Amino acid sequence: DGGITQSPKYLFRKEGQNVTLSCEQNLNHDAMYWYRQDPGQGLRLIYYSQIVNDFQKGDIAEGYSVSREKKESFPLTVTSAQKNPTAFYLCASSIFPGTGTEAFFGQGTRLTVV
Amino acid sequence: GENVGLHLPTLSVQEGDNSIINCAYSNSASDYFIWYKQESGKGPQFIIDIRSNMDKRQGQRVTVLLNKTVKHLSLQIAATQPGDSAVYFCAENKNNQGGKLIFGQGTELSVKP
Q: Is B97 helix (H, G, I), strand (E, B) or coil?
């Protein structure tokens, strides 16, 4: 089946550690996005990528890093510089960046700092 | 039942009634709008979209209305069912911003049997 796969579903991290969240899509979409969602809040954009080997910061990029070495994959690293990393992280992709099309979402990764 | 945007993030309706969820968007340059449904612990699912050259679009049991004059978007759900219980988000897209979506706060819809 085509779709977006995020892994793991739940992730626990000790303070001071970096952790990488996986996002893979087999929809042949050009654009991919990472959003952060806090309880009772909307989604805020962390990073996005319109093409392989290129990405841009979103509204809350500090403390995060990404790479886009393959069209299918857009991993997100939550670094120790992120002061409040506990949140629900959502990855999305869309067909045509910049022309207004719906984004398809994965099922999310819930990150908890212990 | 009807909410009035960010001041009423929770909407409770009786099963079988119609629901109206409202959203005020931020940028008059936005030209594409989407409604998403998010169930607890899951990613958002696409419901319906509308482009700025339209003021109404209908789907199965859902209708989206767009009022560009006051930058207002609404989602109407007909004959609301218990399975409609979820958080609903509106999102706006600006063509000159790389296709990224700007999300509203969301409204939690609760359907009473």
A: helix
Cα gap B38→A41, rounded to integer Å = 12
Contact call for B99 and A101, based on CB within 8 A: yes
Q: How far is CA B72 from CA A59, A65, B19, in A?
A: 23, 35, 16
- Whole-number mean pLDDT of chain B? 88
* Side chain identity at residue B99, one-letter code: G
Say whether residue A95 is in contact with chain B using an 8 A CB cutoff. no
Q: Which amino acid is at A79?
A: T
What pLDDT does B61 receive? 96
Q: What 3 state SS string does B83-103 have? A: HHCEEEEEEEECHHHCCCEEE
In this structure, are residues B15 and B82 in contact, taking their beta carbons and an 8 Å threshold?
yes
Phi first, then psi: give them for residue B47, nearest 5 degrees: -110, -60
Q: How far apart are the first and last CA of chain B?
A: 14
Q: How many CB atoms lie within 10 A of CB B97?
A: 18
Chain A residue with CA closest to B32: the answer is A100
- Taking the CA atoms of B67, A38, A103 and A66 in sequence, report the sign of the dihedral they define: positive
Q: What's the whole-number mean pLDDT along residues A77-95?
A: 93
- pLDDT per residue as tens digits for the range B6-40: 344 899 999 999 999 999 988 888 888 999 999 98
Q: Where are the beta strands (DSSP E) in chain A?
A: 4-7, 10-13, 19-25, 31-37, 43-51, 54-57, 64-66, 76-78, 87-94, 104-105, 109-113
